[in-house]
Structures are given as structure tokens and as C-alpha cells.
Amino acid sequence: MAQSVNLKPFYLVLAVVAVAGAWFIVGARSGPPTVTLVPASVGTEFDGHTIGSDSALVEIIEYADFQCPACATFAILTGEDVRRNLVQTGRVRWSFRDFPLPSHPKAPLAHLSAACAGEQGRFWEMHDQLFFNQGKWVRDRREHRLFESYAQAIGLDMDAYAECIADQRHIERISAAKESGVKLGVGSTPSFIIGGRLVAGSISYSTLLEMVEEAEAAAAR
Amino acid sequence: MKHRMITSVLSLVGALVSLYLWLWKIGWVGPVACGADGGCETVQFSDLAEIAGVPVAAFGAAGYAALLVLSLVGLQDRWLEDRRITVGLVVLSGLGVLFTGYLTYLEAFVIHAWCRWCLGSAAIIAAIFLAALAGLRRPAPATG
């Protein structure tokens, strides 16, 4: 016959473990980060994320929204040609400026993710991750988790990335970049300023090349 | 009886670890507390961290929950001397050890990254298996 044993102390231990574990998990809870654009403070300026030679004759400023399909189309179809043929050859200095549109609710966090990657010198890698995977994260309720996976894939320090996202310290710079575009007449994405001319839409590489050549000719005169 | 108590407590800890990783995977909890090397993210974001679209942590949570229930049942007077409970714990935890061994192999040789929480879980299931084996070695109670 089995001897009955007082199990109360054991159940007490079990309850303490359960409560401690639940406390830890609930304490770690956080939904998707809520990122809302706020107007940039007076004096906050941001010239964008730039690649290319300072001595390039032509500067192209791109205003884009990471959730905008046309921006992704441009990045995928034209971006690589631009970098290889125009930026790396020293002909063009390229500047990306944030222009998250109000109609794209996931854009602010995407831009913040890119800015946080930029803090670790990996803006362009995150730029590519966001555009090339846009079709995936736009449809996913857990886009912040996907952004973390992109951050991981491009080799970011994940603690620093998480701290940057939580801190949202780049949000005013993102707003400042957008406000600079509004002042220049940008109303849609992608928009480009090529040699001082504003061009809207996902232009082809050949169109862009023609405009670069015209800008180079003008600069040489 | 002591081995079933140990199994219960360890199963609860294992279930909480698995639950944490599962909830993290589905976006319910914030960044996983795992150190700056990002090993947990690398492992958890891997395609190998899901089976038929279900995160492996969910399987872990279910397995630990089953072990917890079985060991708690085995602590009740009616089942205290029932050897089937002990055998069940050995079989279930043995399957857990095999599954965890496979996942640890994937971490070491396929993903090339270590998830500390997963290693913690591997240690827990190994300890449960040893506790269950210890119960199995106890002589069966005299009958008649």
C-alpha cells in the first residue's frame, strides 16, 4: 500500500516556479513597437543616407517610402544598375531620404529599422532587405519580428538594434527628411531630384541615365 | 516519488522556457533575452525552427506539459506505485531527448549558431530523462 505523503510543500515550490516564470514572460511582453511620426523640432535636419564620391558631378536625391510598391520596384529593377554603373564609377552621389506616407501604417517602423541599421553602418543592407522582402512584411502582422530577422541577417548587434528601436531616437530625423522633401515639392514616392530637377515615379534606368548625362553636361558647362 | 517531484518541477521550468521562445517567435514578447551575439535569433529565424509551419518551441511546450501532467498524476496516492507512470515518463522524456538531440545537432552543424535558451532546454530534458530512469531503477513494490 502506497504511503500518503504531504505534498503541500512540493505544490508550493511548483507554484513559486510557475509564478516566477509567468512574471518573467508577462514582463517581457511587448506588442509591435508603435512608431508615430512627429514633426521634426526646429533645427533638426537630415541630408539622407548617402553613398558615392563627394567629387561626383551629379547628386541624386531619392525620396522613398519603404512600404511603397513603386519604390520597391525601382530598388529591385534599377537600384543595382545605378549603384554599379553610376555610383561605384564615381559619376553620381546618391542620397536616400525618408518619405513615409501617411497611407502606409508600417512605413514609420520600417524607416526606423533602416535608421537603426544605419547607426551600425548597415543602412543600405537594411534598405535592400526591406525593399526585396516588402511583399512579405507588408502582409505580416508581425513585421517587427521580420525586421529583426533582417537585422540579424545583415549582422547587426541585436541588443543595440533593439535599444535603438525602443528609443526611437531617429524618428525626428525621419520627419526632417520628409519635411525637406515637402519643401522641394515632393508629393509622391519615389521622387528623385536629379541635377536640380524633380522627377516622380519609378523611372527606368535608361531614363535616369539620360537625365544624369544631361546633368553632367550642364555641370561641365 | 522524489524522482516524480523532480520531473514535475523540471517539466514546469522546461514548459516555461519553451513557452517563452514560442511567444517570442509569434511576436507576443519583446526582443529575446539572449546576449548580443544574436544566436537565439539566428536559430529561431532559421527555416529549421519550424516543422510544418509550427515553431519547434510549441512542440517543446506541449511535450513538457505532457511530462508535467503525467508526473503530477503519478504523485497522487492512487498512482504512486504504478510503474506504468514511470515507464511513460521514461518513454516521453526519451523521445524529448532524441528530439532535442536532433535540434542541437542542427544548431551545431547546420545553422552554426547556439541558442542559449535551447541549450537550457536540452539540459532540462536530459535531467528529466535521468530522473525518470532513476525512478525506473527502483524495485517494483511487493504485491499480494
Keywords:
heterodimer; A: 221 residues; alpha+beta; five-stranded mixed beta sheet; 9 helices; 53% helix; B: 144 residues; mainly alpha; two-stranded antiparallel ribbon; 5 helices; 69% helix
Please, could you describe this protein's structure?
The complex is a heterodimer of chains A (221) and B (144). Chain A has 221 residues and is of the alpha+beta class. Chain A is built from nine helices and five strands. Chain A has a five-stranded mixed beta sheet, with helices on both faces. In chain A, a hairpin with a 2-residue loop joins strand 4 (191-194) and strand 5. Chain A starts with 7 loop residues before the first helix and ends with a helix. Chain B is mostly helical and 144 residues long. In chain B, 69% of the residues lie in helices and 3% in strands. Chain B contains five helices and two strands. Chain B has helices at 2-25, 39-45, 56-73, 83-111, 116-137; strands at 50-51, 54-55. Chain B has a two-stranded antiparallel ribbon with strand order 1-2. In chain B, helix 1 (2-25) packs antiparallel against helix 3 (56-73). Chain B is elongated. The mean pLDDT of chain B is 88.
Walk me through the topology.
The complex is a heterodimer of chains A (221) and B (144).
Chain A: H1 8-27, E1 49-51, E2 58-64, H2 69-87, E3 92-98, H3 107-119, H4 123-132, H5 134-137, H6 143-153, H7 158-167, H8 171-184, E4 191-194, E5 197-200, H9 205-220
Parallel strand pairs in A: 2-3
Antiparallel strand pairs in A: 1-3, 2-4, 4-5
Helix pairs in contact in A: 2-4, 3-4, 3-6, 3-7
Chain B: H1 2-25, H2 39-45, E1 50-51, E2 54-55, H3 56-73, H4 83-111, H5 116-137
Antiparallel strand pairs in B: 1-2
Helix pairs in contact in B: 1-3, 1-5, 3-4, 4-5
